[in-house]
Amino acid sequence: MDKIGLLKKGILKHLYFNKQLSSADLSEKLSKSLPVVLKLLNELIRDGEVMELGYAPSTGGRRPMLYTLQKNVRYVLTVAMDQVFTKIGLMNMEHEFVKPVRRYDLRLADNPEALSGLEALIQDYIKINHIDGATIAGIGIGMPGFVDVEKGINYSFIPSGEHSIAEFLEERLNLPVYIDNDSSLVALSEYRFGAARKRKNVMVVNMSWGVGLGIIIKGELFRGNNGFAGEFSHIPIFTSNKLCSCGKTGCLETEASLLVLIEKAKEGIRNGKTTNLRHLSDTNPEEAYESIVSMALKGDKFCIEIISEIGYNIGRGLAILIHILNPELIILSGRGASAGKLWRAPIQQAINEHSIPRLAEHTEIEISTVGARDELLGAAALVMENFGKDRRKKKSKGTGIELI
Amino acid sequence: MDKIGLLKKGILKHLYFNKQLSSADLSEKLSKSLPVVLKLLNELIRDGEVMELGYAPSTGGRRPMLYTLQKNVRYVLTVAMDQVFTKIGLMNMEHEFVKPVRRYDLRLADNPEALSGLEALIQDYIKINHIDGATIAGIGIGMPGFVDVEKGINYSFIPSGEHSIAEFLEERLNLPVYIDNDSSLVALSEYRFGAARKRKNVMVVNMSWGVGLGIIIKGELFRGNNGFAGEFSHIPIFTSNKLCSCGKTGCLETEASLLVLIEKAKEGIRNGKTTNLRHLSDTNPEEAYESIVSMALKGDKFCIEIISEIGYNIGRGLAILIHILNPELIILSGRGASAGKLWRAPIQQAINEHSIPRLAEHTEIEISTVGARDELLGAAALVMENFGKDRRKKKSKGTGIELI
DNA sequence: AAGACTTTATTAAAATTTAACAAAAGTGTA
DNA sequence: TACACTTTTGTTAAATTTTAATAAAGTCTT
User: Fold this and answer.
1) So where are chain B's domains?
2) What parts of the sequence cross the membrane (chains A, B) (predicted)?
3) Do B326 and A231 count as a contact with CB atoms less than 8 A apart?
4) Count of alpha carbons within 13 angstroms of residue B236, beta-carbon side
5) Which chain A residues touch B362 with a CB distance below 8 Å?
6) Which tens digit of pLDDT belongs to each residue from A50-60?
7) pLDDT confidence bin for B161, thresholds 50/70/90
8) Which of A13, A64, A286, B72 has a Cα-to-Cα distance from A404 of 20 to 30 A?
């Protein structure tokens, strides 16, 4: 794509994340001069992509014209995968679903056909909803596992050999495709639409069957050297000998995931603890978790207790994060955020006990309110994040050559 | 300073870190076009700051002219502080000392006069060595404690109230002053001159009386939100009840610093362990540490054992780092690096036991060879890192204003 | 050894930024 | 309330920078 095309996309990207901006705002965000920005804006208006919204109140001088996106010109196809289900939706430029989200069965574990299966689902969704490819900015896919975003490979699921999943789908679907780890996308949606907006250094904990971590550093998603950063679930901090799914012992996950919460609840019920909690489903952890939370929110002491235990353990992990990365904000997000402020006290307690006060007092703790929509929204953000970026990798040359 | 002045400084900065560069290299590093870079280079040559070095070998085309700095035109004043001593030196553009390094007594703990004391030392050094301020690019100071680089405040030592230490010294000395945490500077010098050159995501462990950590992320020193990132010493990962200097228990430092090594050695001697180690100084930990290392390097089994124990504990901490940040490289640096490869086996052992293999295998472990010069060198790098940067903070404006 | 391809340096053309100015509003003072 | 002064946006003109074109110097392939 040519240079000014990329710039126009850059404008659309910023308007996507900010709803309305003045030419001066865009000039600053794009590091381009006002004359250029205004020229491009007028072209975008002419093409029906952008519209004038009216004047903003003065901040002490002439009032700026505000610009916004035309709502129904471009869309993003979003995909959120977990171990058993794959959800697909279509969102407009105002972060709303314009076609109903569909939930497909697609098992990831030990499924050599996962990739072609995924392609078929997307094709199906496009076909059923009569989606015109020309209106699609791109496809964003969130998936569990070790994802190397740059190589486009998932080392845990969706085998694709040495080939890029993203490139494979791009060729088949003829649309830009971006993939990322689910926890990273939860973090991205908190950064763009949730409690982490405009913040620079934020840790987003994805409380779920494991404990994921999305890291925002200097206003960008940080993925580490191979895209594996944020493996919070498996930091070794316990001396109990519980075996973890990863083969080690002492992982945070063995004492602090929602699955552990369910285990504790079941054990309590077996041991005749005083609680209103009744039988919990063995096959549907989602349901079991929601029962525990709703009981806890109604004041059930046992449920509150076990949630506190989990929270305290999470807090121990967070204390380590605070020491190493000194973030301004930690957000508890993902499925587990529905327990809301029940987490706050035990987490804060653990942080107080295990951190240097000067550090802890500079880090806020927030519970996410964006919730379960997070991952599909994050996948959409992933697409728009890359909108207006040149995908071609520039070859790096060595410097400091020998003198002849 | 005007724009082209900053650009020229930018050229000098890159030549400082790279010795010799072609115009094409500089064009890429500065994101400026070749014609501009060549114009500026010619001006710098005319002013006697830069010289042509000759042609580099061809890489398949016309040979590029290489440029380098004139050696004795500009200097950097470097200061490295620890709890009791302050070292000051003067370095040229080839990272060599041009005046002897002087060691001054300056106690930091509970010293309300530390700041004026520091100023006096620098004044003294300038005076004694007849240094012409006009030739100095700036003053870089490394110091222990919680340092907020942006505010220029050290919250642990060198009380300056709410005022900036850097600005205070700048006014008094009439030279640009930059301060930073000692471990950050060790990391910076590894990044610029040591094993971390050209790497993007590197953790540099500063093995000393505590365990510091300097974090390089995306090719830049990462300091966290308040400059407190890298408090590796106090991550809570042990269940032993040893009280730490910070008031908590279980800190890495209580089981993994060089002071602990000395303690273990003394205890061993008291208990009559088989070792060639004799009496260790109670007042000079530096000397005690060096005795242990030299014995270990000669093959003393007991010394090797206790070094291994410390190494293993460090490794446990590193395993956590690897999970969270997925670095490409971890460097063991600082005072403790003199034990060299003795660290390697126990650290690797701990990492193998406590990390997911897929993660661990992507992270190299290196022992620093730069060694004790690190901190003064890092302070010089800090000055040049900021050379050619506009120091004025641009005021950030809010976006997304309401529509009228 | 000739022609195709690379890379750097110089120059000319195109594009962008900066600066200057005009327009529209707020602020302060008599 | 009128009028001068400051602030901020939008437009036009001048200056600068970048991109493209071209020349120069060298490597590589057949």
Assistant:
1) 3-69, 75-185+374-397, 195-369
2) none
3) yes
4) 23
5) 225-226, 228
6) 999 999 998 88
7) confident
8) B72
pLDDT at A17 over 90: yes
CATH fit for domain A75-185+374-397, picks 3.30.1330.30, 3.40.30.10, 3.30.450.20, 3.30.420.40? 3.30.420.40
Q: Above 50 in pLDDT, residue A393?
A: no
pLDDT per residue as tens digits for the range A134-182: 999 999 999 999 999 989 999 999 999 889 999 999 999 999 999 999 9
Helix (H) or strand (E) holding B205: strand B202-207
Same fold across A75-185+374-397 and A195-369: yes
Among B59, B63, B232, whose Cβ lies nearest the Cβ of A323?
B232
The answer to whether A267 touches A246, Cβ cutoff 8 Å, is no
> What Å value separates CA B89 and C1' D21?
51
Q: Does domain B3-69 have CATH number 1.10.1040.20?
A: no
Q: Give the confidence band of B402 by pLDDT, cuts at 50, 70, 90.
A: very low
- The per-residue pLDDT of chain B, averaged, comes to 91
Cβ pairs bridging A and B (under 8 Å): 186
Is a pLDDT exceeding 80 seen at residue A218?
yes
Tell me the chain A residues in contact with residue B63 when contact means C-beta distances shorter than 8 Å. Answer: 404
Distance in Å, alpha carbon of A284 to nearest chain B alpha carbon: 28
The protein side of the strand D contact, defined by CB less than 7 Å from any of its atoms, consists of A 3, 22-24, 34-35, 38, 59-65; B 3-4, 31-36, 57-58, 60-63
Cα separation, A224 vs A41, whole angstroms: 36
Our CA-based measurement puts residue B307 at a distance from the nearest CA of chain A, in whole angstroms, of 22
Q: Contacts by B105-109 with C-beta closer than 8 Å and gap 24+?
A: B106/B81, B107/B83, B108/B81, B108/B82, B108/B83, B108/B84, B108/B143, B108/B144, B108/B145, B108/B157, B108/B158, B109/B83, B109/B157
The nucleotide whose C1' lies nearest the CA of A64 is D9
Output the distance from B404 CA to C26 C1' rounded to whole Å.
16
Report pLDDT digits (tens) over A279-306. Answer: 778 888 888 999 999 999 999 999 999 9
Find the range with the poorest average confidence among A69-78, A95-104, B271-280, B302-311. Answer: B271-280
Over its C-alpha atoms, chain A yields an Rg (Å, rounded) of 23
- Please name the amino acid found at residue A207: M
Q: Do B404 and A56 touch (CB under 8 A)?
A: yes
Contact A271, A261 (CB under 8 A): no
User: A interface mutation test: which of B320, B328, B351 has the most A CBs within 10 A?
Assistant: B320
Kindly state the tokens that stand for B209: 């009386």
Give the CA-trace dihedral at B45, B47, B49, B51, to 10 degrees. Answer: 20
Length of chain B: 404
| Mean pLDDT across A16-27 | 95
CA-CA distance, A21 to A191, in Å (whole number)? Answer: 18
- The values of phi and psi at residue B191, to 5°, are -70, -40
**CATH 3.40.630.30: does it fit domain B195-369?**
no
Please name the member of A57, A217, A250 whose beta carbon is closest to the beta carbon of B402.
Answer: A57
Categorize the per-residue pLDDT at A371 as very low, low, confident or very high, splitting at 50, 70 and 90: low
